[in-house]
């Protein structure tokens, strides 16, 4: 198996199309094919903040559900949109408001279609994917080695939100432990969730959320090649949205 794992899209539909083309995929009769029989995997956070979340939902639904030619694991923004579509009282903030604004502009019959697409995508997705053919685990915010193979609320919280401490930074962001420093496994852990300027490789983990929605790049990690392919963002650059880790501060 050959796999292209794509980082957080956040409604950046044009960049997604550009990356798919850059990776060498071609559309044939509503199906996406690659001459080397590669497959795409999405690491979650399809929607929110960016300009075209509805189009991203439709495209990912087509590839994952209709064509069964791609993998998808949900992110925390996917979880929040799913709960909104179920009718839960979810605060429309941190980007959800942009997706809802798009959604309510649709004709009613299309609203129902999009809602059902997202609900089905979310409900059929595993919390994380173990893909032994490429010796990898795909989890939105990462996963600890001893959680691999397990389910439950602790695992769900970790893969959606990261290793949160329960505290918050002054700007409201949750404080997260740097779990990747302590990872000693031999499987690749491919994740996103926390925007970084360049893909962050540490031990056998890689963060591929290169902050497309904040004006940087949309990135894919290719396995088994262990290479990076990315395309530039079309959004305004917002430097303060990117995480700087200790090793960068020391340079």
Automatic annotation (TrEMBL):
Coiled coil start-end: none
Required cofactor names: Ni(2+)
Gene3D superfamilies reported for this sequence: 3.60.21.10
UniProt domain Calcineurin-like phosphoesterase: residue ranges: 1-196
Keyword ATP-binding: no
Domain of life assignment: Bacteria
Catalytic activity as recorded in UniProt: P(1),P(4)-bis(5'-guanosyl) tetraphosphate + H2O = GMP + GTP + 2 H(+)
Sorted UniProt keywords: GTP-binding, Hydrolase, Nickel, Nucleotide-binding
EC identifiers of the protein: 3.6.1.17
Catalytic class of the enzyme: hydrolase
Transmembrane stretches, start-end: none
Record's keyword annotation contains Cell wall biogenesis/degradation: no
NCBIfam families: PRK13625.1
Function: Asymmetrically hydrolyzes Ap4p to yield AMP and ATP.
Annotated family: Belongs to the PrpE family.
Protein name stated in the entry: Bis(5'-nucleosyl)-tetraphosphatase PrpE [asymmetrical]
